[in-house]
Amino acid sequence: RTYTVLVDDGTCTTSDEVAVTFKPTPILNYENVTLCPGSGGVTLGDVNSISGADLTDATIIWLPDTDIDDNRIANPTVNPSASTIYTVTVTTVDGCSVSQPIIVTVYDQELLVDATEACTVADGGGTATVSVNEILGADYSWTGPNSFSSSDRVNNLTGLTVADFGTYDVTVTTLEGCTLTGSVELIESCC
Asked: Taking the model in full, what pTM does it have?
């Protein structure tokens, strides 16, 4: 774009043209992420996380540069042991620079699986409970002996027979997309 500059001091007038080139600033579109247990890390962003500018020879720097596979690429993988705020700064060759913080939340809620003691009676009148601690918004999936399956957090088992004793497995899927697994052994106790 060309602009004309006009200077008038009252006795003399002069003008000149000045060419101004506007260089767009990069647009950053990263989202905060959750690092699930046992995942080995999480990738920050995707191919669309940086746009809006010519990124040829641009520099990318992530800080802090710990627990990160490469702090000079657009989409690094991070694996911190505690929740961390990473900040990416992108600078074009023209000197246009922009930064964005990204929160990496390390999911650390423990899964506690429990079973009450159970007893059976000859006619299948035994009772027991298998349960897992509450995780807000989570989905639960139980499997166990004798074709047992349930989507409840707490399962009050009734009419137990010997075939109902053994290992009960639970898979919990959290709102953040983490999958937690656990199991508990339901054993027979004397009535």
From this structure: 0.73
